[in-house]
Amino acid sequence: MANPYREIFSAPGSKAFCAAGLIARMPISMAGIGIITMLSQLHGSYWLAGAVAATFALAMALLAPQISRAVDRYGQRRILPGVAAVGVCAMLALLLCSYLNAPDWTLFVCAALAGCMPSMPAMVRARWSELYRGSPKLHTAFSFESVLDEVCFIIGPPISVGLSVALFPQAGPLAAAILLAVGVTAFVMQHKTEPPVHPRTLENDVTVLRQGAVLVLMMALIGLGTIVGTVDVVSVAFAQHQGEPAAASIVLSVYALGSCLAGLVFGSLKLNMPLPRLFLLGALATAITMVPLMWANSIITLAAAMFLAGLFFAPTLITAMALVENIVAPAKLTEGLTWMITGLGMGVALGAVVGGWVIDAYGAPAGFRVSLIAGLGMLLFAVAGYRLLQNSTSQPANALA
């Protein structure tokens, strides 16, 4: 039986840009949790740590679509290096401010500037789309990318938290900045697989958010991101309250591991179910799996509940990306994919702030109520936008087959 994952790497250059993209996206999983760990150690406040991390995530979420629009217009090589340089320098400034015990407002300013980072998952997916548009291999490629996203969240948080705890508080975010610089440099050197620049037209200047289906998907993914943001903050607080601060990285990795395994299986399947229905079922399952988190009373029970919750993250995200590829014109694909990552980023920011506030006010276990509410919100948007998604997708490409 043919291995679908081996087949997608038959295209020349695919292994190189995929590997570089993996390195360049590592900061997504390392920077936020690294900032939380760093500031909670230095200041002892989860609200401040969560708020600064949320500022970083929100800035990245808002800037990334604009960066991607520029990439669609001018190309990855012309835009990505300069943008990454700004993000890396701002992150280094944030670490310096934390080391010098500068006023809190400087942390927020530097975090906002550090959010000037490209959405590398969207950049890599744009290259896969150029290779396999209209082919079943694109589903496998998107699935593989979602698995790599989860691999980052399996190995990223332990590296970031471990470095900050074992070496010095700034070590985790520092490693994230270095990986961003190295990864983006290696990625833009892969010239042959870079998507072509689309001519600038009046239609291309209009944001894809004017398409109602894209907006529905982004709002739903805000709910999914809120779950992730809450889980980040609550896991760190829960583990510290249990007297095992290092266990936070294990809990986060278990969540990502469940999603990674589910994504691998999902990517190997040939499903005939329409994409809007798959997305609705994914949102429903995500909301239901938030309930067991309410019962977690130890690291073991929390890890078990997190593994279950993670099983539906990657399949739901894969389906959302497939819907965007189906709905959005090729000239706007990078922007469309980035808005999905933006939805996740905005949700992460919201979850970090609200989760941090709830933890400070009511304790760590209460923070999981935010995850449950976010799951229900995601389901609400999936239900409300179901008909719109149906009408926006083309029937021949409406299934993962």
Protein architecture, described:
This protein has 401 residues and is mostly helical. 77% of the residues lie in helices and 0% in strands. The protein has 16 helices and no strands. It has helices spanning 4-8, 14-43, 46-74, 76-99, 104-114, 120-132, 137-166, 171-188, 212-241, 247-268, 275-288, 299-310, 313-327, 333-362, 368-384, 386-392. Helix 9 packs antiparallel against helix 10 and helix 13 runs antiparallel to helix 14 (333-362). The longest helix is centred in the N-terminal third of the chain and has 30 residues, at 14-43. It is globular and about 50 Å long. Mean pLDDT is 81; it is low at 395-399.
Short précis:
By secondary structure, the protein is mainly α. It is 77% helix and 0% strand.
Compute the number of helices. 16
Distance between the termini: 16 Å
Query: Using only CA atoms, what is the Rg?
Result: 20 Å
**pLDDT < 50 runs, ≥5 residues:** 395-399
Strand count = 0
Q: What's the mean pLDDT score? A: 81
User: How would you characterize the largest beta sheet?
Assistant: none
* Structural shape: globular
- Can you write the helix and strand succession as a string? HHHHHHHHHHHHHHHH
* Strand residue content: under 5%
In helices, the fraction of residues equals over 70%
**What structural category arises from helix and sheet content?**
mainly alpha
Write the layout of secondary structure elements.
Elements: H1 4-8, H2 14-43, H3 46-74, H4 76-99, H5 104-114, H6 120-132, H7 137-166, H8 171-188, H9 212-241, H10 247-268, H11 275-288, H12 299-310, H13 313-327, H14 333-362, H15 368-384, H16 386-392
Helix pairs in contact: 2-3, 2-6, 2-7, 2-8, 3-4, 3-5, 3-14, 4-5, 4-8, 6-7, 6-14, 7-8, 7-10, 7-13, 9-10, 9-13, 9-14, 9-15, 10-12, 10-13, 11-13, 11-15, 11-16, 13-14
